[in-house]
Amino acid sequence: MNGFAAYDPEASRHPANDVISVRGARAADLAVCAELIVSRTGGPAEERVERLQGDLEDPERYVAVACAGSGADEQVVGYGGVIRHERLPEHPADTAPSGYFLIGLIVAAGWRRHGIGELLTLERMRWTAERADSIWYFANLANGAILDLHERFGFEEVTRDFTFPGAPLQPGTCVLLRAPLVAQWKQLPE
Questions:
Q1: Is residue 11 part of a domain?
Q2: pLDDT tens string for the chain (190 positions)?
Q3: Where's the N-acetyltransferase domain (predicted)?
């Protein structure tokens, strides 16, 4: 198990029967987001909730959720975040540059192939476009689905020789990507 969903680029997408909305997370969403995260990474959900709560309180971070249904029937079915990373002088020379980074895109198993990852990526890029002119992302080279998704949004490879503080990257297994955030991103509806 490599921690991400199997990818079949030839599989067809299935439109969602429910209305899907994307918005900034609320405190009430964090337990579900934590469960999504630990379904992929393992570990205690309680620790993830605490980290996510910190993300909600940090103006340099953003937590987005995708929801199926509406009102009382609304169900969180996807999660993605943005963090502001600052490369410090004491970091190794190969540390990723300072900037905003997309992190942790996870869609619940039963909701994959409905375009939810795209909606979450659009929302996170829209949020970041209000703060920066470019955005960063890193991914495992074996995760074809996520690499294809980000390529559609203009991400291009920068390097495969990098580190990121706190990320368990294995040398030669990941790629660092960057995309410009042009004027039209700032005008996307919220």
A1: no
A2: 345 555 555 554 555 556 899 999 999 999 999 999 998 888 899 999 999 999 999 999 999 999 998 877 889 999 999 999 999 999 999 999 999 999 999 999 999 888 999 999 999 999 999 999 999 999 999 999 899 999 999 999 999 999 999 888 887 899 999 999 975 555 555 5
A3: 20-182
**Sheet with strand 62-68: strands edge to edge:** 20-24, 62-68, 75-85, 99-107, 134-140, 174-180, 156-159
Instruction: Note whether residue 75 is domain-resident.
Output: yes
Structural domain count of the chain: 1
The Cα 26–Cα 113 span in angstroms is 25
- The parent domain of residue 51 ranges over 20-186
SS3 content of the chain, % helix, strand, coil (to 5): 30, 25, 40
Residue 167 lies in a domain: yes
pTM of the model: 0.86
For residues 179 and 150, the answer to whether their CB atoms sit within 8 Å is yes
What is the C-alpha separation between 144 and 150, in angstroms, rounded? 10
Assigned domain for 7 exists: no
Locus of tokens 């600052």: 86
Domain at 86, CATH number: 3.40.630.30
Question: Could you give the 3-state DSSP secondary structure of residue 61?
Answer: coil
